[in-house]
Design goal:
single chain; Four Helix Bundle (Hemerythrin (Met), subunit A); globular
């Protein structure tokens, strides 16, 4: 949902960084991997209760990972392998982030179950998009795409919000999964 409103502005904002990457001959896949490493570093900081710096590092890693697509498009370097790597790295990054939530912010088995459900739903959302693309169906609908999931998780951890926010977020993920599944099912 945020992507629809902010993508043009964010891609304009990214132009100077893309130019730097081009000048340094940095490849899109390198940015993806670098973003993952930085997100993992941010998660490590969170695990060690260095929340503010951890938040900044996770956002930085996510932003760096977000540059790979615009860099690939600007250099005409779009490949199926690059798209696969980017999608794979996005899932791994989210897994690390939500694992921190599971370890540091749950106190009951049911809360852990909810976080594991969030991880599962977070993986179903891009799966349904990719499945749609394989069938020639554009399927980017939903209120909880990747930017929203990362932003929510980091803000939740940073401000140590009450767990009921995770319940609300889980409902938003369920709605997004339903929306994407429904579009695919109707178009088959």
């Amino acid at each position: 949902m945020l992507e629809k409103y902010f993508k043009p502005a964010s891609e304009k904002f990214a132009i100077p960084f893309i130019k730097i990457c081009i000048a340094l001959r940095i490849k899109p896949n390198t940015l993806s991997l670098l973003g993952l490493i930085i997100v993992i570093g941010g998660c490590y900081l969170f695990m060690n209760d260095i929340k503010t710096l951890g938040s900044i590092v996770i956002f930085l890693g996510s932003a760096i990972d977000g540059l790979d697509g615009p860099l690939a498009r600007s250099n005409n370097m779009i490949t199926k392998k690059g798209a696969l790597l980017d999608s794979f790295i996005d899932r791994v990054s989210e897994l690390f982030i939500w694992s921190v939530v599971a370890i540091k912010f749950t106190t009951t088995d049911f809360e852990l179950f909810i976080v594991l459900s969030v991880i599962t739903l977070s993986n179903l959302i891009p799966y349904l998009r990719a499945r749609g693309e394989s069938l020639g169906i554009d399927n980017k609908v939903g209120i909880a795409a990747r930017p929203e999931r990362v932003i929510f998780a980091v803000l939740y951890m940073l401000f140590d919000l009450p767990f009921y926010y995770i319940y609300i977020f889980t409902v938003l993920l369920l709605i997004t999964v339903y929306q994407r599944f429904n579009i695919l099912y109707k178009n088959l």
